[in-house]
Amino acid sequence: MSETVNLRDLRVETRNGLPIVEEIGFSIAPGKVLGLVGESGSGKSTIGKALLGYAAPGLRIASGSFNVEGTDLLALGGEARRRARGPVVAYVPQDASSALNPAIPILRQMTERLRTGQDRLLASDARQRVCETLERVGLPTDAGFLARYPGELSGGQLQRVGLTVSIVSYPRLLVLDEPTTALDVSTRASVLDLVAQLNRDLNMSSLYISHDLGVISAVADDVMVLYAGQVVETAPRDRFFEAPAHPYSRALL
Amino acid sequence: MSDQKRNLLRGSNRAGATLRMIARRLASSVLLLCIMSVLVFAATQALPGDIAQMVLGRDSTPEQVDRLRSALNLDAPVWRQYLIWVGNLLQGDFGVSFVSRQPVFDILQTRLSNTVVVVLLSFLISIPLSLVLGVYTAVNADRVSDRVILFFGIALNAMPEFVLALLLVLLLSVQVFHIFPGVALLSPGVSIWMQLPKIALPVLTLALLQASYFYRLVRATMIDVLASDYVEFARLKGMPRRNVLWRQAVPNALVPAVQAAGTIFAISFGGVVVIEYVFAFPGLGTALADAVGARDIKVVQAITLTIALIFFATNIVTDLITMALTPPGRGGVR
Amino acid sequence: MNKSRHGYMVQIASNRLAQVGFALILFVAAIAFIGPLVSPHTHSEFVGTPYGLPTDGAPLGTDNLGRDVLSRVMHGGQDLVWMAFCATLLGLALGTAMGLSAAFFKGWTETVLMRVVELKLAFPSIVFALLFVTMLGPGKGLLTIVVGVSQAPSVARVMRGVAMDVVRQEYVQWARSVGMRAWRVLWAEVLPNTTSPLLVEFGLRMMWSISLLAGLSFLGYGIQPPAADWGLMVNENRNALSVQPFAVLAPIVLIALFSIGCNLFAEGVTRAIGRTGGTE
C-alpha cells in the first residue's frame, strides 16, 4: 500500500491574506527522505504543520492539495483531519522538552493516540507496540522508566520519546521538524542514524526539516530549498551538493 | 547497585527533600508568628500612656483601674509583660473579655466555627463556578461572552465588600426580589446548619467576591496553557478536542489554581469582617469589630493572632498540595 | 531608554480601558472635591423629616436625621478620596524604596525586607488597621499612615520584580563597577524604567485604599459623625433600605464607580505595556 505522497500548490497565509508560504509542492516516494532547507523564519515549520492540516492560531491554509494513500488530506473536514493525524501523517517536534506534557507520564503520552478513536487498541496491545518501538530507538522498556515524567528525562531521551510518539502509529509520512537542533553532537548523530534506519525499515516517506546543511546531507535523499516562503530549488542530494542551481542555494553552501 | 536498590534510594531522597521543605516552611512560619505576636502585643499593650485608663475610660473608679492593671501585669517591665502574655497564650489562656467577663477562648470557639462555615460554604460555590467560567472564557477568549463576563469580574472585584453586600441586599432582599433575609442573626443553641437560608446572602456575597478574583486567574492560566507547545503537540498528534482541553491542558493549570485558592481562602477571613457586620452575623468579624470599639484588648489580640495562624496554616497546606500535584522533574517530588 | 518610555506613555494613553478608568476616577474625584463648594445645603443642615423620599428640595431625599442626602453626598468624598490618595502615595513611596533596595543591595537587606513583606501579606489589611485603631483611635492621620503602610508590601513585591530585571542589565552592572554611588544608579537608571508598573500599582493601591477607608468608616472606625462621609452614610442609612434606598445607593454608587475606575485603569495600563512590565 505504499504510494508516493504528493503535495501541490500549498499556500498558508495570515488572517489578513499575507502569504507565509506559497506555491509549495513536492513528491516523496516510500522509503525516501526529502530534506527541506531554509533559514529561521522562512516558513519551514509552517509547511511541516500544514501537512497535518494544522495552521497555528492567526494563520490559515488558503489552498493546496496533499495526496496520501488516495485521499486529499487538505480537503477533509476537521474531524477527519484529526483522525488522519497519527496513522497517516505524524509530526516529530523540534524540542521534545517543551512538546511533551510535563504533567503526564511518558507511557501515556506514547499510547494515548493509539487508544483514541474507533479502531483504538487495547491498553496491553498499545503498550506492547510502544515497547517494540522503544527498543528500536534505544530506550528502556521497564515499568519504572515508563512511569517517569518528561521532567525526569534527559534531552536525548526526550527526543527519542518524541520520535516514538509519532512512529508508533506507523504513519505513511513522517514530518521531522528539526528534531536534532536541541541536541549535542553525539546524540544528534545517533538520532540521525536512527531516522534513516527507521525510514528504510518501515518504508515511510519522510520530510526532514532543518536549517543545518550538514544534517541534511547526512540524512536526505533529495533536497528542497525554501527562501522567503517559496521553493527556489529541488534536486537530488548529490547533484545539489555538487552543483546547486539557484544563487541562494549556492550562498547557503 | 541493582535497579531496585537505586529506585528505593531515589524514593527516600525525594521523601527527605519533601520533609526538609516542610520543616523549613514550618520554621519560617513559627518565626513570622513570633514577630507577629510582638507586633500585636506592641500595638495593644505596649503603648505609652495608661493602658488601663484608656480601656476603661474616664468614668472608671480607681479600684477598677487597679484591678485591670494587675490583670494585665502593667506594672511589670514591658518585656516581662510580653513573656507572661505569650506564656499564657501557649497554655491556651487567651484571657478574659473586659466587656462580657467571659473567657475569650469560649467566645472565640463559636464565633470561629460560624465564620469557618460561611467561608467554606462560599468556597463550595465559588470554586466550581470559577473553574467553569475560567475554562469557558479562556477557550472563547476575546469573544463577546468573554468580554462581558470579564467586565462583571472586574466590577465585582473592585467593589468594597460592604458595597457588594448591600447591593445584594437591595436586589435580593429588600427592593427587587424578596428571597433572602437581609439579616443573619442566628438563634443561639440551634445549629447553624439548620439556619442556612439566613446565611445565604453573606455566603453569596463572599462567594461572588472570591469568584471574581479566582475565575480571572483560572482564565489567565488556561490561556497560557492553551498556547503552550505541549497543547499544540497534542493537537498535532491527533488528540480529540475534549481530551486536549480536559486531560492535556487543565492538569497543568492546577498548581497555580491551588495556590490562588489558598490565598483567597486566607483573604476571605479579612473580607468577612465587613460582610458579617452588614448582616449582623455572629462570627469572628463582628466579634472583632465590636471588640475594637470597646477596646476589649484581649479579644482583639486573640482574633488577630487566630487569623494570622489561619494564614500560616493555609500556606503550609497549600504548599503540601502543590508539592503533591507538581509532576516530578520540574521541582516536584514523587 | 527615554524614547521607549515615551512610546509606552502613548500606548497607555490610547488604551481604552485605561481611558475609561481614568475618566471614572476624575469624575468621582471632581464630585468629591468640588462638591462641597456647590452643594445646595451644608452637610449638617436639617431639611426635612428623616428618611424622606426625593422631593424638589431634596432630590435624593433625606437621611436618618433629616439632612439632605444630595448635599451630604457632595461633601462626603473629600476626606475619603484625599486620604486614599495620600495613603496610596505613601504606600507607593515606601514600597518602591523597599522593593528597589531589596533588588539592588541583595544579601541581608533583601532577606529582611522580604520577610517583612511576607509578614504583612499574611494579614488582611482591615484586621491590620483595626489592630492599630483599637488603642490609638480613628484619627485621620493615623488611618492614612496605617492604610499606606499596609499597601507598601504589595508594591514592594512588584517593584522588586521589576528592579531585578533592570539590575541584571549590563549598563547597571557597568555603572556599579565604575563606582557610581548606589543611589545615583537607582535614581538615574532603575527608577525611570519602573514608571509603567508604578502606574499599574497606583491604580490598584487607590482601589484598595478607598475600599479599606470606606470600609473602616462603615464600621465606625474611620471618619466620625457628624461629618459627611460616604462609608459612614452607608452605615447610617442602611436600616431604611426598604424605605429610602437613595441615601445608601448614592454613596455606594460613587464608591463603586471610583473603585471600578481604578481597577479598569490598572487593567488598561497592564494590557498596554504587555505582561513583562515597563522594562525593555
Topology:
The complex is a heterotrimer of chains A (253), B (334) and C (280).
Chain A: E1 5-14, E2 19-28, E3 33-37, H1 44-50, E4 59-68, E5 71-72, H2 78-84, E6 89-92, H3 96-99, H4 106-111, H5 123-137, H6 143-146, H7 155-167, E7 173-177, H8 185-202, E8 205-210, H9 213-219, E9 222-227, E10 230-236, H10 237-242, H11 247-252
Parallel strand pairs in A: 3-8, 3-9, 6-7, 7-8
Antiparallel strand pairs in A: 1-2, 1-4, 4-5, 9-10
Helix pairs in contact in A: 5-7
Chain B: H1 3-44, H2 51-56, H3 62-71, H4 78-90, H5 104-139, H6 144-158, H7 161-174, H8 200-226, H9 229-237, H10 241-249, H11 254-279, H12 284-294, H13 297-325
Helix pairs in contact in B: 1-13, 5-8, 5-11, 6-8, 7-8, 7-11, 8-11, 9-10, 11-12, 11-13, 12-13
Chain C: H1 2-13, H2 16-38, H3 69-75, H4 78-105, H5 107-121, H6 125-136, H7 140-168, H8 170-177, H9 182-190, H10 195-219, H11 230-237, H12 246-273
Protein model, in words:
The complex is a heterotrimer of chains A (253), B (334) and C (280). By secondary structure, chain A is α/β, with parallel strands linked by helices. Chain A is built from eleven helices and ten strands. In chain A, strand 7 (173-177), helix 8 and strand 8 (205-210) form a beta-alpha-beta unit. The N and C termini of chain A lie far apart (37 Å). Helix content of chain B is 74%, strand content 0%. Chain C is mainly alpha-helical. Chain C has one domain: MetI-like fold. The longest helix of chain C is centred in the middle third of the chain and has 29 residues, at 140-168. Residues 275-280 of chain C have low confidence and may be disordered. Chains in contact: A-B, B-C. The A-B interface holds A 49, 52, 54, 56-57, 82-86, 90-91, 93, 95, 98-104, 112-113, 116, 142, 144, 148-153, 165-166 and B 3, 7, 227-230, 232-240, 243, 247-248, 251-252, 254, 327-330, 332.
